[in-house]
Amino acid sequence: MPFSLTPKDSSFYKLFSASAQNLVEATDVLSEFIHDHARRGELADRLRDLEHAGDQSTHAIFRQLNSSFVTPFDREDIYSLASHLDDVMDFVEAAADLVVLTGLGTLPAEMSQQTALLQRAAETTAEAMPRLQTMKGLPDYWIEVNRIENEADKLYRRLLSRLYSGEFEALEVLRLKEVADQLEEAADAFEKVANVVESIAVKES
Predict the structure, then answer these.
(1) From residue 183, how far is each of 62, 83, 88, 90, 114 by CA, in Å?
(2) Gap between the Cα atoms of 105 and 97, Å rounded
């Protein structure tokens, strides 16, 4: 029976799964943050902790990449996948931070809907990461994330239309748009994660 003297490092799968699971928790906290005004400071602190945990996961992947002789798929794809997962966390944390820093109160309902889409994208991504080991069942994942991102784009455009409708004061429009932009960037980053996974699957097929 043939065997390899340089087996591929399988630890990456657990590291990617941990990074994606961190995003599930972060988007859940963000949902609480959007709705619970009284606990926003506490929840923003929790998101900062999760952002630090995400950084640690990303650095662990990079360290493993630098020390592994044989990787399960292209090094560039490993780096890109880790980076885009980290980007999602950064955008989520930044959105909450901007709400706190600018003293925003009740947020438009569309932001709650944006967050719900991010929660769905995070759950779908976390479910998919373990499948990288077998490369099975992945098309459903990237199709769903692309669908979510398209829905997020439409929602973002509706929110911009509302912000510029005259319903809000000019300064509040600027503040709200900054937050909306970060949430939209998070959705885009989830799609970039899915695109990397699709690229990996194509190369490995």
Answers:
(1) 26, 17, 9, 10, 7
(2) 13
Tokens 């941990």 sit on residue: 18
Lookup: tokens for 192: 């970039």
Q: How far apart are CA 43 and CA 38, in angstroms?
A: 10
Using alpha carbons, list the distances in angstroms from residue 153 to 46, 117, 181.
27, 11, 11
Q: How do residues 146-183 score in pLDDT, each as one tens digit?
A: 999 999 999 999 999 999 999 999 999 999 999 999 99
Q: What is the pLDDT of residues 105-152, one digit of tens each?
A: 999 999 999 999 999 999 999 999 999 999 999 999 999 999 999 999
Cα radius of gyration (the chain): 18
